[in-house]
Amino acid sequence: MASKFAVPSGDDKLVSWLEAKRDSGRARMPDLSMKLNLAYLLGHQWITWDRNRQRFERIHVSPNDPNAPIRITVNKIAPTVEHFIARLTKVAPIPECRPVSDEDDDIDAAKVGSRILDHEMTRLDWHAMLIGLYFWVTPLGWSFIHVGWAPNEGEAVGRDDDGDVHQGEITLEAVPAFQLAVDPNAMCMEEAKWCVRTVSMTQEAVWERWGVEVEGAHPTRSIVDDVYALADGTNDRASKRKVDQVDVHQFWMLPCRAKPEGMVVTWSGQEILEKPKAFPYKHEHLPFVEFDLLPGLGTREGRTWVTDLLPLQADYNDARSREAHLRRVLTPKIIAPVGSMDPQRISSRVELWSYNPTGNEPRFEVPPNGWMQQYEQGMERTSSEIAERAGQNDRSTAPSGASLSAASVQAIQEQDDTKLAISVKLMARAVSELGWQMLELVRQFWTEERLVRTWSQEGELQVAHFSGADLEHQLDVHLSTESALPKSKAARRELLDLMWDKRIITDPRLYVRTLDVPGVDFISEQLSVDTKQAQRENQELAVGNHVEVNSFDNHMVHIKEHNDFRKSADYEKMPKTLRAVIDGHVDVHNEFVMGQLRQPTPTGTPHMPGAGMGPLAPGTPTQDKFMSPEGGLPPAPGVPSAPPGAEPAPPGA
């Protein structure tokens, strides 16, 4: 006898079973709260709830009413949310792989995984997608990214009876919280056994995609449609425009007792649009990664501080509107009998009040001036409370003209970042899960080698070919929470200057690269010329090719790059014959350096650790940064010092 919890077989029973699942997985946050948060974010803040229509309506004001109340909206929530998202996503967090052991195969797989993630995140424009996602996460408290595999996307690799055959691509799509109903027994997405995604589509779009005309589905409007309808002066017209839409649901179930092979099925109304099929992904995780703004209390869903701002925003708008009303009342008035003055000949800055001359002359009462000040103080207090609740009350910038040390700038930055720490840690956990699922899809679907493009720290394009077989070993995908926190460039520059003065950093290439400010790319490119040349030589030497040492080479840079390579695991795994070739190549560079140290340098000729840089004016900041205190080239690691009795370079060289 089949259990009542098992998946039924008939379409009618299946639809009823799916609808029951969807109802049980609805979000704890009611649709009413979601609509209200989104409406306030978009500036629709003078609204009321229509119980008959079950939706928000704008407060109706007759345009012909001369005494209509003033309703001013000063949207404090939108800039607060935008500033928060800008701080949180200032640096796009890119996950990276860590080896699960010190075995060479695990280390190599981690390197490949990191390069693939870097390539895919760049292809998918990850930074822009993250910003767009958090415009859902922040007002709602949580939302999702759908990590999927699209077999009909990517480069065409052949043809069959149905047309072109594509290699397929990984896809990422932001999913608002109200679109996904999740297994209510799960305290996190990793524990969920099933979920249902619901989107609103026109009946024509449904027919175009699945070839089915939906029967038995009620016309519907999504939460987004309801919110944007508030911008329309007539909600009835907006409602008619959306009447053609129906809800389309897609059910995802992991392999479990109810369905051992898992299930994915799509339906709308009473129609099955896409027949049930087995769960398609081997990693056996639901392909929806949850991003939370704040942790939920006793629930899987995250929380948001935007809900707490709504009464403050309403109070601010009320005070601002009352202040505007007082200004209108306090404009100069002319009180005159009817017919005694021509209104067309009176300036618009003066208001004419006419009265019937029979009886007593009307009195004009002026409110005391203290009301204006009271409203101003109330609005200032409300603005401060909004900023405090959103975690934006502190200032991470110094006053104009103030000069702070690197330690002071870092302390202010750390205090400001503390308010982001909770959201940053939750984002880091979600990004790690996102990267893991992406690599699992690569492992499953990249059956052939694919081109992977990444850029080195020196900005050099690195091209390689990888397949899913290169990720056969277990991977640990990680995102450091420190890498996701915004960084102060002022603090970084102060710290770099201090480390350079203390001789902690002696490599000018590292200094320029870490500085990360616009306008110095030409310096970085010039300093990287020799580095790139030496790295190309490493690739040639690694395969046993002979590489000549040129007299114009920057020998100290070459020695450093070759020595870094000789410390790598790849070098240690090479045969002794190949290692001897590389060792001999470095010995030739050392001989050139020794010869240069024995030759005196002409006085007054500054040197830079890069070919073609040319002399610099003495005392310039660039010269101070890129020259050793003695005036010559900074010492390179691994280069022997001049032998006893050798002529040292004269000061100022």
Description:
- By secondary structure, the protein is an alpha+beta fold.
- 41% of the residues lie in helices and 16% in strands.
- The chain has helices at 11-24, 31-41, 77-88, 104-123, 126-140, 203-210, 223-229, 235-241, 306-329, 370-389, 406-418, 421-445, 481-484, 489-501, 508-515, 521-542, 555-566, 569-572, 576-598, 621-626; strands at 47-50, 55-58, 96-99, 142-150, 156-160, 163-166, 169-176, 180-182, 194-202, 245-253, 263-268, 271-277, 288-292, 333-337, 351-355, 450-455, 461-466, 475-478.
- The longest helix has 25 residues, at 421-445.
What would a concise description of this structure say?
The protein has 653 residues and is an alpha+beta fold.
List the helices and strands and how they pair.
Layout: H1 11-24, H2 31-41, E1 47-50, E2 55-58, H3 77-88, E3 96-99, H4 104-123, H5 126-140, E4 142-150, E5 156-160, E6 163-166, E7 169-176, E8 180-182, E9 194-202, H6 203-210, H7 223-229, H8 235-241, E10 245-253, E11 263-268, E12 271-277, E13 288-292, H9 306-329, E14 333-337, E15 351-355, H10 370-389, H11 406-418, H12 421-445, E16 450-455, E17 461-466, E18 475-478, H13 481-484, H14 489-501, H15 508-515, H16 521-542, H17 555-566, H18 569-572, H19 576-598, H20 621-626
Parallel strand pairs: 14-15
Antiparallel strand pairs: 1-2, 3-18, 4-7, 4-13, 5-6, 8-9, 9-10, 10-11, 11-12, 16-17
Helix pairs in contact: 2-7, 2-9, 3-5, 9-10, 11-14, 15-16, 16-17, 17-19
Q: Strand share of the residues?
A: 15-25%
Tell me the radius of gyration.
34 Å
Describe the strand arrangement of the main beta sheet, using strand numbers.
8-9-10-11-12
The structural class is: alpha+beta
Which regions contain 5 or more consecutive residues with pLDDT less than 50?
394-401, 605-653
Give the % helix.
Answer: 40-55%
Count of individual beta strands: 18
Question: What's the mean pLDDT score?
Answer: 80
Largest sheet: 5 strands, antiparallel
Number of helices: 20
State the end-to-end CA separation.
93 Å
Bulk shape? flat
